[in-house]
Design a protein that fits this description.
The strands form three sheets. A six-stranded mixed β-sheet has the order 1-2-8-3-5-4, sandwiched between helices. The chain has a five-stranded mixed β-sheet with strand order 9-13-10-12-11, sandwiched between helices. A two-stranded antiparallel ribbon has the order 6-7. The radius of gyration is 23 Å and the shape is globular. It is built from 15 helices and 13 strands.
Length: about 425
């Protein structure tokens, strides 16, 4: 696999990954903006509204018919948060000509349809259609409101919101219910035009077509892209230290039968020159796998929780520990999680734990090459961070991580937030209780 990244138009970058490994190509187009409470919901809504209709394909029925003509090409809206950058756009899956009747190449017509959806939406009087905006707004509100249904994910989200309350990272990728409710077709049209004019654009392609052919297609379909002063001043603010000297604590109540304990850490000084390999290995040793200290000790040996795991945000420099516990085990579970981290800090890491973690992380990274979706996400993140390596190179770095590297990451961590979701007395069914 050969990857190149080139600016093909002002503020439009293409990452081109040439490979014969897949029977379909993937093409994603992402408009980038700073994550903001005021605009997050509008930005998230835009690709869903654009997907409803375009010039020549005024409704979803006509769009679907055209996609069928292109042998099942798929184009779907995408909304992501990478650090404190919001990425909205489309992800397309395009059948490779080598596997189509007569070896027909559908790359150009697929790009044409993608360009129409982006630049020539169905409008009336120059404004996005109110019925499309209102319909998709209700679906967006349903997505935002439904987050409370998954208590495990909800608790993690609430911990982030409290821990990063003064930072853009507290804003979810779909924004807030309050902001979404205030959207109307006129406001959304203004934001859509602003996004096209000011957003840097990252395009990723993985497939058999040459870079020359793809660039030709993209320049044609994006020739009408209106550009103003492009906002390159976007990025993620990484806070090194906890907000206060002692970890902040937040306790909330809901109708649940199982408590949710989430502990938020800042990765600290190790983020000054971020080293993804040792951070990923540390996370796996601590709580990122079934051989981790949290799983083997807090869950299995001591049986203090239904689940216990850690996850890391390399872009923002955060590590979160999430666990499901009985309400009366809050203190003992919390203290044991701290104790397991202290054990790593003091070098209590067996060769088996370290080797298992390195093998798991390296295997996961190498598996990215089997999935276009994983490759797309990896290289989009890489482009935003300005990094040079691919998943295979990162896997090799992982295998060189030492016990001392893991201890160094552990000693860099600072606990910033302890969030506890407990029952209010009228409990509802909780699926995690079976874990």
């Amino acid at each position: 696999m050969e990857i190149t990244r080139t600016e093909i138009m002002p503020g439009v970058w293409l990452s081109h990954l040439r490979t014969d490994k897949f029977k379909s190509a993937c093409l994603s187009l992402n408009l980038l903006s700073q994550l903001s409470r005021e605009t997050a919901s509008m930005n998230a809504l835009i690709p869903f509204v654009l997907r409803r209709g375009a010039t020549g394909y005024e409704d979803m029925e006509k769009i679907s018919a055209r996609l069928d003509e292109l042998y099942g090409t798929a184009i779907e809206p995408v909304v992501r948060r990478i650090g404190e950058i919001q990425c909205v756009g489309f992800f397309a899956s395009i059948p490779e000509g080598d596997f189509l009747p007569g070896k027909e190449n559908v790359l150009r017509p697929a790009c044409d349809l993608l360009g129409r959806l982006l630049l020539s939406p169905a409008t009336r009087g120059g404004l996005l259609l109110p019925q499309y905006v209102d319909s998709e707004k209700e679906k967006l509100l349903d997505i935002i409101r439904s987050r409370i249904n998954d208590k495990r994910s909800y608790a993690v989200t609430r911990c982030i919101e409290e821990m990063c309350c003064y930072e853009d990272f507290a804003v979810g990728r779909f924004g807030s219910e309050a902001e979404a409710e205030n959207i109307n077709y006129k406001k959304l049209t203004r934001q859509y035009r602003s996004l096209l004019q000011t957003s840097p654009i990252e395009i990723f392609y993985c497939g058999r077509s040459s870079k020359k052919e793809l660039v030709s297609c993209l320049r044609d379909v994006l020739s009408a892209l209106p550009r103003g002063e492009i906002d390159y001043d976007i990025g993620t603010d990484v806070r090194m230290n906890a907000l206060e000297e002692k970890p902040r604590a937040v306790t909330e109540e809901l109708d649940v039968t199982q408590g949710k304990l989430v502990i938020g850490y800042r990765l600290g000084e190790c983020m000054e020159e971020a080293e993804p390999a040792p951070i990923l290995v540390f996370n796996c040793v601590f709580g990122g796998g079934t051989t981790s200290k949290l799983f083997m000790n807090v869950r299995e040996r001591l049986q203090l929780c239904y689940y216990a795991s850690s996850m890391v945000s390399l872009q923002k420099g955060l590590l979160l520990v999430a666990s499901g516990i009985e309400f009366d085990k809050f203190e003992v579970a919390r203290d044991e999680i701290f104790r397991q981290l202290d054990a790593i800090r003091q070098g209590d890491i067996s060769d088996e734990e370290l080797n298992s973690a390195k093998s798991c992380v390296a295997s996961d990274l190498r598996a990215y090459t089997d999935s276009q979706g994983e490759l797309e996400g990896f290289y989009l993140t890489r482009a935003l961070e300005g990094l040079e390596y691919g998943p295979m190179e990162l896997a090799e770095l992982v295998e060189d991580v030492t016990k001392e590297d893991v201890m160094r990451i552990a000693n860099s961590l600072a606990c910033d937030m302890i969030y506890f979701l407990k029952g209010s007395g009228q409990a509802e069914e909780d699926e995690d209780a079976a874990e």
